[in-house]
Amino acid sequence: MAARSAPSCHLRLEWVYGYRGHQCRNNLYYTAAKEIVYFVAGVGVVYSPREHRQKFYRGHSDDIISLALHPDRVLVATGQVGKEPYICVWDSYTVQTVSVLKDVHTHGIACLAFDLDGQRLVSVGLDSKNAVCVWDWKRGKMLSMAPGHTDRIFDISWDLYQPNKLVSCGVKHIKFWSLCGNALTPKRGVFGKTGDLQTILCLACARDELTYSGALNGDIYVWKGINLIRTIQGAHTAGIFSMNACEEGFATGGRDGCIRLWDLTFKPITVIDLRETEQGYKGLSVRSVCWRGDHILVGTQDSEIFEIVVHERNKPFLIMQGHCEGELWALAVHPTKPLAVTGSDDRSVRIWSLVDHALIARCNMEEPIRCAAVNVDGIHLALGMKDGSFTVLRVRDMTEVVHIKDRKEAIHELKYSPDGTYLAVGCNDSSVDIYGVAQRYKKVGECVGSISFITHLDWSSDSRYLQTNDGNGKRLLFKMPGGKEVTSKEEMKGIHWASWTCVSGLEVNGIWPKYSDINDINSVDGNYVGQVLVTADDYGVVKLFRYPCLRKGAKFRKYIGHSAHVTNVRWSHDYQWVISIGGADHSVFQWKFVPERKLKDALHIAPQESLAESNSDDSDSDLSDVPELDSEIEQETQLTYHRQVYKEDLPQLKEQCKEKQKSAASKRRERAPGNSIRLHFIHGYRGYDCRSNLFYTQIGEIVYHVAAVGVIYNRQQNTQRFYLGHDDDILCLAIHPLKDYVATGQVGRDPSVHVWDTETIKPLSILKGYHQYGVCAVDFSADGKRLASVGIDDSHTVVLWDWKKGEKLSVARGSKDKIFVVKMNPYVPDKLITAGIKHMKFWRRAGGGLIGRKGYVGTLGRSDTMMCAVYGWTEEMAFSGTSTGDVCIWRDVFLVKTVKAHDGPVFSMHALEKGFVTGGKDGVVALWDDSFERCLKTYAIKRADLAPGSKGLLLEDNPSIRAISLGHGHILVGTKNGEILEVDKSGPITLLVQGHMEGEVWGLATHPYLPICATVSDDKTLRIWDLSPSHCMLAVRKLKKGGRCCCFSPDGKALAVGLNDGSFLMANADTLEDLVSFHHRKDIISDIQFSPGSGKYLAVASHDTFIDIYNVVSSKRVGICKGATSYITHIDWDTRGKLLQVNTGAKEQLFFEAPRGKKQAIPSVEVEKISWASWTSVLGLCCEGIWPIIGEVTDVTASCLTSDKMVLATGDDLGFVKLFRYPAKGKFGKFKKYVAHSTHVTNVRWTYDDSMLVTLGGADMSLMVWTNETESYRERRSCDSEESDIDSEEDGGYDSDVTRENEISYTIRALSTNIRPMFGVKPHLQQKEPSVDERPPVSRAPPQPEKLQSNNVGKKKRPIEDLVLELAFGYRGRDCRNNVHYLNDGDDIIYHTASVGILHNLATGTQSFYQEHNDDILCLTVNQHPKFINIVATGQVIQQICQGPELPAELDTTNGFL
User: pLDDT, tens digit, for every residue of 302-321?
Assistant: First the structure.
């Protein structure tokens, strides 16, 4: 049976044996429900001692290392390690995520603490600066951040008696922090003479500014404010790891194994020495202690949890045990009982009861244990050791039967034969030894042949064969007991294996990825009865496959919980459970096997929500039984929106060209033209790769997008208005519930989402900073306050915004495959769905993160590609359209039903008050009832139904429908072919807007005396457009090939069209019927031009470097222009029709005589004197100025000169349309610039009377019509053009003072060395030897305190006198403005100099100072509001050293404090 799909059975985590005691402290607490919360591996555990039951929180993706309990004792915060670690705040009742805090720390989160009212959370990172961060955890927002210390911080706590105060401690330091605004300011604790400077491990805050801290030497240090006032010596005999404050007092736990209880004034109450109790042992070390009432919880270094009742303190109750530190590899199950055996590098072997969830036996061995096996009758237990020996114990009393050492290297695997006769022992030295059990384990055979260490062994059912795997992944078979290698394929075929634990072999091929040789699967175990296979790998994942799985890349279900390497995995004897063990987390996980069930039974094993992209997911590999993707969808998934140069790169590129800029600025350049253009109408709609991007506004206008423009179309007046805030392709559009605002997302390196008003066309909010490359989907919440967006980066990041504030609320990785749609829940603003390639995910906001749950398909179908999605009539109901034409109906995360809706993909879906409307690739619009049970009506989009008032022609029947919207009694439909149609509910269809279909558009020609133009495109159509008020497509003709150029004859009757196969045709300009066609070239025809006057000749330029000249009257080729070294790009005739000007791809400007085609060499000076009939050239002295400074990275693709020879319009590769004064002599001419096209503007043409400019966007397929506004005509309005890039001196320049100030660089000054040369060593540095490579100080921020050397401790130091600033002479005026103000009704003035804010009393001449800045103040302002009298803000220079936001200081001048 091929493993085409993931198995339908599941694993459910039932029990975790262990507790993380090593390298962690203070991670064990009682919750409000008297349950115990702690963590192990990557799982948060809530254990109920009363019911002996565990609940699990599995929102982490790596080892949890810190935990804090909320003051309500219900919520828990946990922090993990990892490259991008995050904090989860979760509910201990429901074990569901409440909030996720991410994107700040790196490496890991070492400590966590809630404040008194539980509103804020502080965290400490494991990065090099041990960053301290304060969070508003409910909103997932960081409030403040500061570098913590240069060395490790072990504990942090809020001062519960002083607001906004915190204390942190760690290696040789304690710091007292105050939070003011968003600034965290530390003060180091002063040890003074009272105690030695040493490492502080834990702390607790008390009343009256007192802080108690536990030191490494076992003393307790008592602090008042920041000063050490006394020490309680010998509180413990070794380091104090944990301190817990409660209503009764304090509890401390130390390395000496003692718990001490203290009253509220830290007087001792009692001591409990766990080492002396019945369960105690030498070396017991306490890592965590929690005191509640008469119960004390204790967590130890060796993974035990004790509960002590105070009045029976000598009888601690052991409630959890696990393996100690050291890797855990050995795992075996009892053949007849529900028991599991584990052995570890901690040298202990333990037997666990799978029914009672308890440790029932433990035995310590002499050596670390690496493997284990129980014989067939359950009497003997064999253990393989790291030193090459193995030991056999009796299971019932753990006494030794035999100890044998035949090898010097570690034993990796051993197994008893099914008949109990032999024991096979696999060693690191690549040999397998066979021992006879009955002969007191005498060696009876040896298997040799492996070239690497032995990793796995399996016996055949008849005990006659043994298969082995080695470290190279090689599988060998041996005959037993002698050990002869079996090579005969026939002999191999007949073998039936008693167990399957090998990772190599035909039956388990599917556990390996398709195209990978990685060796990261550590263990496998086959369940023959259930036909499933369980695997364990290096990534902390346990997977379930079908068995056998023969084809590589089989589907699977995966389960997380272990943090890193899962070293071994086994089924229990009756296949009820799976046991997995973690190498580094040394935990034992017990999973309940849930066989295949119907969906309703499976509700309790719904995929648990998880931040990590896993937990009962299907695998990532392709489903081999999914039908091929629909061609349209496949095409769309292959689109990439990456640009070689993004518009954001332009300032940087211009910066690199500064030298060019300076040389150009020194020359006088022609000013920009007086004319300007205004966007008037766009023919086009982006349907080929977008969906659901077409809506009615509040007042019945239509909003959609094309290229980089948001368009509002008035269908009554046939006019358009434009939102021009974007600078690259818009990929998605959503409308606000009130239908007055629109959100659009664009392509870009740091792409933005714009929210804008459809009435004023002004932006309301621009959101950026969290996506890469582009934004492909957006949606508003039902209340309109929030916005969800999806990026096109590799993870398809999903971001939730408060768009009015411009604030990111939550962010999460969406999917590695493309996401097509995001939809927010209309009933619950915190919920949303995303849908895409094999993807349907239900999200819930949790603080700064989003928790995603994959849609559960069950037996109803398979994971299909979803193209659209909407919510239904309740918050739980959702509907999605698939790539196969079905509509899926979801309740919560479960697929309830599928309905066949269309032939081919369902691209668009819209929810109505009482029903739905869908549109698909089949060109049909379908109306449905509210449960998708009945299709009420269908509308097919056909040419025959087109109403007379249509603005164009429908290209084909049943075009693929990409967008549907309802309103104002009509159905609005957007098609893949770039058409927008309005369907009346009674049937007739009106075409409103259309553009070219997918494929680049290059060919453009304007009519010689009518306001019409022709375009030809790679979509194989030739079209005629009316540029007058009707703005419609007049005619269209399908061509056999795509085309790149076209031209009207001078009389306007004929139209020449150049095609991509090297042929060209002449058509009747009215009917578009062929007049004549020629095919003389093999490559693209790139330009085509009639000679002026009677149009006797036609010049045809091709990509194979030739220009052919044809006599139009005789229809014969009369000349060929040769001599170009590259493809031809542009041709122009002179007014006499005797000379051709030619541009080539190699930037050559050539001239040929017509009609013979003889090449002419004409000096540049003479070229200017020639009168040209048209100018579309981009080369030559006359248009030298049109090339930008960054000409190396962008090409000017097209130009066109007005008939009065005054204004030259150009189009370039970056999507800019520019106007230059003609001739544009001299480099880098001045221009007016317009952005509307997204990328390459492929062609520009003025109409016959210069009243309009027509431009083509290559990739955006749009035809834009601009009106030409002359200087006299221009109204006083904000111009939507940008002036040119560089300004020269003649534009006014700068006053010399302003120039000097403009050139000041504060960063350089702040980083410079001393102003005057200094010699010698400053006194305070003289004691230590300055190192050679010591760098000069880099800023005037206070230097980090030196680490005290041990021999300085306790030495008497001279007291340092304090200096007090009395008077400061000076005022910063040379480079600052508006920085002197009156205060207190004119009695005082406030100003600044150096790093000091000065309040100067005019009557007395005295000064008071604000001295919290540590570098030059550059600006000052006074709050004018009557509520905030005397509040001043000042801003300084600083070298950025921390990731947090830097805000100016605010000071109150009445007392000089912040």
Answer: 889 999 988 888 888 889 98
